[in-house]
Structure formats: structure tokens, C-alpha cells
Amino acid sequence: MTVPTRTWIALVTCRPGPKVSVDRDLPVLVGAVAEAGGEAVAVPWDAPDVDWGSFDLAVIRSTWDYSWRAAEFTEWAERCGKATRLANPADVVRWNTDKRYIGDLAEAGIPVVPTRYVAPGDPVELPDDHEYVVKPTSGAGARFAARYAPEERETAGRQLARMHHEGLTAMVQPYLQNIDVSGERALQFIGGRFLHASRKGAVLTPGTPYDGDKVAHPRLEAWKPTFAELSVAERALAAVPGSPELLYARVDLVDGEDGEPCVMELELVEPNIFLSLHTDSVPVVAEAIVEAAAAG
């Protein structure tokens, strides 16, 4: 009689820090993976002397400090992906850590928030007839993001100067007023299948400094997506270059000026899955992780 070998899984996280949120879902997921037949351990991505090759699968979960060290993080993903199976794959990580991917989605015909990019050295042109958002192409948790009225051009210019001094490319987007009414909707997928959805209120409030603390997920609640929302989310995932196999994905949607859903962000690196809100999804996620590890 052959005894099945349990799979070893690294749930990849980050070290605690003053500006890093605590992943409250992580210990729950570790336990759920064990119940599903795997062996999981939470491992910081930058922990020294980790033998990533000793794991059957490494699943990026809450590496929520990566945007401060994006180049270092993507290099880690490349190394880890060569040592073991990495979910999501390293090429997806490299593409998705730079929000210029929004331009790729737009070229593929996916409805997105209109976005203009301003790299260091580029001429700075800011809107003078509507509210807008300035944020970096590499960021998480609304880091270095702010909302401006047309008359706040001087303040926005200082933010751009600070970002460019740090070598960051900026994104300038219109502030879609529908966010204040219908919020942002986050549609989660696991193993290519829709899992659950959530809605949250507007993150950027007028007058909040770009370098000030922000609540990443205000007034979070469960949400039943519309057919249009599901359609846009599925189209966005299908447009990811190379059609990679995605273990997990989150598509963040808002209503455009025409009232129809459009993609604000496509989260394929370290999205919060909001399992504490959707407790029924815990075993589904755990089983998908164990299945992915065994498939390798």
C-alpha cells in the first residue's frame, strides 16, 4: 500500500512593519490547507536562507511591502520560480507590478480607467477642468496616491516632483465621480473560476495628503456582481499576455463616466482575498492551493 505524500506549500508573506497591514487571513489559510491535505507554512519573501526548492508550491499571498522594493521583489520571484512552482508565475508578477499594464489592457479593448503616464523628465500637464488622481505605477494600499481638484495644481506638482525624485513614474487619471456613489467592486477568482465579490467605499477623500495614511478597504461588504461586471472581469483576465495559468486573481472595477464597469486595477500579485468577509470561500481556496501543489 502506498501512503500518499503530503505536499509542502509556502504561503509567501512579508515581515511585520509600521506601514504594513497584518494579513489576518494567513493563519486561517494555513490551517485550512492542512485540513485540505497539504502542509503549509507562512514564509516572508525576503527571509534569508530559505530553500524554496524544498516546497512543492510557493503561493504569493501578502507580500504587502513589495512596492517599496519592486525591483528586488521581481528578482526574488524570478529566483523562486526557478526553484519551485510559483503562483502566480514570475512573468505575471513582473508584468503586474508595473501598472503600465493598464495601457496593455486598453490596447486589448478592455474598458479601463483612462490613464496617462508621466515618467521622470516628461513634461507635466495636469487637468484644469476636472478632478483627477495622481499615483505611482508601482504601489499598493493607495501609497503615494491622492485626489486633486483643478485648483490644487501646485500641490499635485509637488507630489509629482517627489515621485520623480525617487525614480517613480506617475499615473494621472480622472477621478470618476461614480466611485463616491457605487464604490469599487473587487471580483475574486481562484483556479480560473469566479469565487466571490466585495464592494468598498472610496479610498481617496479630498484633502488627504499623498503621503498620508489611508484606509485601503473602507466600508467593505459582500457584493453580488452584475453580468456586466463579470463579463469585464473575465475579459480582462483573458487579456493577460501569454494566457498564463492563474491560481488567483482579483479584478477591481469602478463605474466609468458612461455608468458601465471598467477596470481600475488587475491584482495578480498579492491581492487581499477578504476571506474574513467570505468565510465560505476558505475551504475552496485551500483546496485549490493543494490541488495546484499536487499537480506540479
What is the N-to-C succession of helices and strands?
A: EHEEHEHHEEEHEHEEEHEEH
**Main beta sheet: strand number and arrangement?**
5 strands, antiparallel
How confident is the prediction overall: mean pLDDT?
Answer: 93
In terms of DSSP E residues, the strand content is 15-25%
Described by the principal axes of the CA atoms, the overall outline is: globular
Number of DSSP helices?
A: 8
Percent helix, as a range, is 25-40%
Low-confidence stretches: none
**What separation lies between the terminal Cα atoms?**
23 Å
Overall number of strands: 13
Radius of gyration: 19 Å
Strand order of the largest sheet: 11-10-9-12-13
Structural class: alpha+beta
Describe the secondary-structure layout.
Layout: E1 7-13, H1 26-35, E2 38-44, E3 57-62, H2 70-83, E4 85-87, H3 90-96, H4 101-107, E5 116-118, E6 132-136, E7 146-148, H5 153-165, E8 170-174, H6 179-182, E9 184-190, E10 193-200, E11 221-222, H7 227-238, E12 248-255, E13 261-267, H8 282-295
Describe this entry's structure for a reader.
By secondary structure, this protein is α+β, with helices and mostly antiparallel strands. The chain is 27% helix and 24% strand. The strands form 3 sheets. Strands 11-10-9-12-13 form a 5-stranded antiparallel sheet. A 4-stranded parallel sheet has the order 2-1-3-4, with helices on both faces. Helix 1 packs across helix 8 and helix 2 runs antiparallel to helix 3. The chain is globular and about 65 Å long. The model has no long low-confidence stretch (mean pLDDT 93).
